[in-house]
Amino acid sequence: MASLDEGWADPARLYKEGRRARLLLDAAREAAAEAVGCRPDELVFTPSGTRAVHSGIAGALAGRRRTGRHLIVSAVEHSSVLHAADAHEADGGTVTQVAVDRVGAVDAREFAEALRPGTALACLQSANHEVGTVQPVAEVAEACRAAGVPLLVDAAQSLGWGPVGGGWSLLAASAHKWGGPPGVGLLAVRKGVRFAPQGPRDERESGRAAGFENLPAIVAAAASLRAVRAEAAEEAVRLRELTERIRARVPRLVPDVEVVGDPERRLPGIVTFSCLYVDGETLLHELDRADFSVSSGSSCTSSTLTPSHVLKAMGVLSEGNVRLSLPPGTREEDVERFLAALPGVVAGVREKLGAPVSAGEVLTREGDEALVVDALGRRCPIPVIELAKVIGDVPVGGTVRVLSDDEAARLDIPAWCAMRGQEYVGEEPAERGTAYLVRRVS
Amino acid sequence: MASLDEGWADPARLYKEGRRARLLLDAAREAAAEAVGCRPDELVFTPSGTRAVHSGIAGALAGRRRTGRHLIVSAVEHSSVLHAADAHEADGGTVTQVAVDRVGAVDAREFAEALRPGTALACLQSANHEVGTVQPVAEVAEACRAAGVPLLVDAAQSLGWGPVGGGWSLLAASAHKWGGPPGVGLLAVRKGVRFAPQGPRDERESGRAAGFENLPAIVAAAASLRAVRAEAAEEAVRLRELTERIRARVPRLVPDVEVVGDPERRLPGIVTFSCLYVDGETLLHELDRADFSVSSGSSCTSSTLTPSHVLKAMGVLSEGNVRLSLPPGTREEDVERFLAALPGVVAGVREKLGAPVSAGEVLTREGDEALVVDALGRRCPIPVIELAKVIGDVPVGGTVRVLSDDEAARLDIPAWCAMRGQEYVGEEPAERGTAYLVRRVS
After folding, report:
1. Distance in angstroms between the alpha carbons of the first and the last residue of chain B
2. Do A181 and B216 touch (CB under 8 A)?
3. CA of B2: how far to CAs of B23, B26, B216, B435, in Å?
4. What sequence ranges are listed for the domain UPF0033 (chains A, B) (predicted)?
5. CB distance from A89 to chain B under 8 Å?
6. CATH of domain B232-356
7. Where are the domains of chain B?
8. B305 touches chain A (CB under 8 A)
């Protein structure tokens, strides 16, 4: 509020309001640099975390163009990183996506193996934005250092909790992710890193972020980063206990739930789980009615939710996906209220979904050994519900063939098999859509 | 303030705070589109006016790449437009800068003559940001329409006063220029205009402005635009009278002043003048001490001020340049206080500057007909002061040769000649710096 009154002027101007704005900007830069762990002249403010990522990747790639045009990213980066990688590929560059394991983490050795002589830049998030899994940044940074490749760390999810350790070369973050205002991102570029800003430039922010600085928001961003950091250690312990409670109790309270992400190496305030036989959007709306604002990585039911590339890369169930973000200050009683409400909400959604599909969709019975389920035209979670209904109808060793044209089935049918201990045989093209083959094991 | 409380959530989310944010965003877009005079789906919010210009130019050029890579801009566009033109040129495109007359206006016919078969885009500001001159946008738009070339109008200076008439194709503006918050620009792209957004994209703002929307600022921007528009007509009359008063009285109160810009076709609240024998930075600091916050297009004395490309293109004096911006609500008594203070301030600066150069710098006396003044190493306004001191020492018809290595002399010596009715003969390279030749006429 104070910076709205004090910081409206142009810091490039010489009159007193401009000089005051310059002082505020300098002070904000120093505070932010201290929190990041870099020099003030290595850090610029951008209009958003996304713009920090886009500018950082474009500038680092251009700065090392002579070395090569190979870019490495993890498969679970924020979309801003993946969009920048897409743009690089469209421009003739090459991109390697490093896979993640079932909890969403890259393997540092596997990441290092992607490094090659023509690698211009590698990107790795400090922690995942959907499932909270912390990435092995220090090990990856060490491998990049040894290979002479700069590492850009997207620290959007973790900067409020503490600085990113390890020898990163570039770092991007977003103020609204640590509870600061929208309209401010950070881009830090270590001295010595080759960097060539792309696009039109001006004299602001060392030529790395064009346009009139959003000074009130920048001041608020720096102040809020300092404020959340002051309570980060204590709050991390408290939120970690609350998310641990959710991780432990949800599978006991709700049948057929998969909690995803690393149980140990994770952010304090994010917890994500997926519920079989539930569509994410309906679940989200029902929770909203109960006054819980959650996100979902499901693509069920309607086009308003897009399937999560993170859950896909992890190979875990996406249907009925719920992502809880507990901001600092979240009260224990709200968590308890959520845990009390969830079972009824999920049961209600399942009941609703169960009804329209109660008439068997089994069309062809090929002897006793194989069943075909036609789920064409039906959206997630219907194909999985149909599969679950008929798996008991074939003998152990028999197969069910699920026909589906819903993209989510590709992820959710194998995930269901893993959860249920059934064998996922594979997929093959069908006359319409895709056929997913499941063998009954138990 | 209300939108900081109400509009913090992500408008892409489905929970109630997200839906409320979406409603706020939609309402802001409708209000802004109405003020611009376009459809809501033609308008996106960007992080600044500069980003709107950069994205608009890049997208329009890419959209018409098959037509050609020729870009037309006026010579007095905002630096954001010229930077985008530089980037286009660096990328292999061609750029034509259309000159302006002595009041800073382009000639619509001359602008039209720059159009050619390979022209992808033309850019013209609605009004100039330094001298307030209004450009003939409607005529230029008509010529562009006839040639099938889209016209991008940088309306940053004028949008608060009213919509831009004429058949523009793209329009850019900046909220903080109309008294709104920093962090918000507008980019309108008319339906049917070929447009290919450049750089990494995301799903926000129709793929034309990536990154989390700065919703509180967007809401405040739309509200403030509506508010200033409600009083624009009345306030324009009042401010125009105040700036007219400054334009008329400054030359009477202060000797050797040139008021610049169009006396009629101009913005209500901007007035710019240049004072001979004064350096802009000292003048600015002295006015600041008297509680007036003004800008300057001078490059005198130190590197903190860069020479104005606008004054240069107009061919007017840049030394001792003062730009007054009267925001809506400026009080008459403040204008009177300024007019009362200015003569003393200018006189004081002139006295200070006169002292160190009182010892004649005349080095060589080549007969009676020619004098050489060595002003090498001396910054503006010293070269002009030296010239003025010795012009009386040569007979009518005689010449003074001023040696200078200050870039401002190239602009200010011809401008002084025009103000003083002396003949500017031309410049030629000297052993050090440049020699400027002036013939005494009167």
Report:
1. 63
2. yes
3. 14, 16, 8, 61
4. 373-397
5. no
6. 3.90.1150.10
7. 2-230, 232-356, 359-439
8. yes
